Amino acid sequence: xxxxxxxxxxxxxxxxxxxxxxxxxxxxxxxxxxxxxxxxxxxxxxxxxxxxxxxxxxxxxxxxxxxxxxxxxxxxxxxxxxxxxxxxxxxxxxxxxxxxxxxxxxxxxxxxxxxxxxxxxxxxxxxxxxxxxxxxxxxxxxxxxxxxxxxxxxxxxxxxxxxxxxxxxxxxxxxxxxxxxxxxxxxxxxxxxxxxxxxxxxxxxxxxxxxxxxxxxxxxxxxxxxxxxxxxxxxxxxxxxxxxxxxxxxxxxxxxxxxxxxxxxxxxxxxxxxxxxxxxxxxxxxxxxxxxxxxxxxxxxxxxxxxxxxxxxxxxxxxxxxxxxxxxxxxxxxxxxxxxxxxxxxxxxxxxxxxxxxxxxxxxxxxxxxxxxxxxxxxxxxxxxxxxxxxxxxxxxxxxxxxxxxxxxxxxxxxxxxxxxxxxxxxxxxxxxxxxxxxxxxxxxxxxxxxxxxxxxxxxxxxxxxxxxxxxxxxxxxxxxxxxxxxxxxxxxxxxxxxxxxxxxxxxxxxxxxxxxxxxxxxxxxxxxxxxxxxxxxxxxxxxxxxxxxxxxxxxxxxxxxxxxxxxxxxxxxx
Length: 575
Fold this sequence. Notes:
11 helices; about 575 residues; globular; 6-stranded antiparallel β-sheet; alpha/beta; GMC_OxRdtase_N; GMC_OxRtase_C; FAD/NAD-bd_sf
């Protein structure tokens, strides 16, 4: 029998970036907030001995335990889905801070084109360009860049974003809070070559601090040491913005926020007297096994893409998407990313073992609709960048094609190339397709008896063409940079759950202005439950040519404003 606890104003499911933002803003507004986190508590004091590549980058110390919960995967509906037994294509975070603890800090804003991609494409190229007849399902987000820009700015100020103006990006109402990171010799080589080709290279926006910074909430971050232990690692110096160093302490300092760790939410409860509302959540204490019901006036789902979807599905909230009929919205438009690039081999030695998670330079000349797609078999593009995130020795074994995978020649090549290669890479958008979606598995369950999420996904023909197009452009830039040899990526094949590619999963709980094609409105309020909000990268109707965190942060601030407005007035939020 579950124990019913005292009611609160707001309960957040998950305490990472989105949960921390919603908690901080709601608590500052005077609302009582409980954050339920199924992992453990952690913070800077826990990361003093974090520079252990094997423990953190190979064995995934900070990631989700797949023996308790994972996903099943298949490329097509006629295949059997099997569980991902060990982290592969993407790395799901766990514990307080979530994936925001082990991220790199690359913090791009999505382009204005992203939010109105269907209408802008139709206006420029005509409806046939959208590829509806090929199963592609591009749709507008129900919000514009201009409407979201103030929330982007709020996130920038919270994390102390470093960078310089993107000549091809959306307008900024305020400058970057801190200056860009150091332009190292390899980044200067890229910038000079790209600009010599007439391209618009600039330093990458970074949540790695370039100087001491105190944000508007009074949280202070320290300057980056360029140790190169960012991706898959936490920062022991408070130099990488994370939920634990910014929004979570802000929420706690109000006195209105309580974090409960080891609290795994298994159900969102619909109000017995009014099925247009939820009444709270049911969770299991993962240490004691006890069950609790946490009543709340407002419930906000802030967990990762897969779990936000799963909680709605097992709670019977919304209609599951059916790829056969295309009816239903829950689970539709799952998206991912591809990477197409080239590697250049140089005589010059670069200190690639030094760096930071977001130490890099990029350009958007082949992103969004910045280039003419009239004669191309794809829409969108990707950001092309060079990053100096650190070449750690276990995972870095760069060789030329046809080099043996072991032996004297392999050793010679890896030693020679360790600091003498540069990869220029396009981070590509992907095309939403009617057959790429989330469902529940009928065979496999998690440690608490709930079905695992089933992922059905494969790259589309346009994904393959787009990725190869970006790879070829990267090769051209490396030639201009003076590489002795340039190896351009081949065309990608089918998607596989291994090896690691990115933790940029999107879709499944998409936003929009029509309940027939979306799960939530542009306040991230669920169409079927007025006091339920769902926020994260699952809201993206398609993925862009960027890292998702900035857009996730902006949506979280938008959601927080919606939560506060709903707490005052109730009802369906309108623009």
